[in-house]
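<purpose> Linking amino acid order to shape
<body> The protein record starts here
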Amino acid sequence: MFEAAIVLLYGLVAVAAMAVTLLEGWANHDGLTFHRLAGLFACLLWPLTLVVFILHGCITRLLTRLSRPMA
């Protein structure tokens, strides 16, 4: 259930970013240029940085707990 919510949130953020990128191109009458396609691809990848930061925090917290001496 939690994983489905995360995937849904990731998808919504990526789709929103892609929509803004497409609307920007439409408003400027640019069409699909190489830079626009690169921007659309980046819209799919940038939310991964959020996943990396969350995983980093979880791993750091786990390692901190494991390195403390048990009292």
User: Anything to note?
Assistant: The chain is about 80% helix and 0% strand. The chain has a mean pLDDT of 85. Residues 17 and 43 are 6 Å apart (CA to CA).
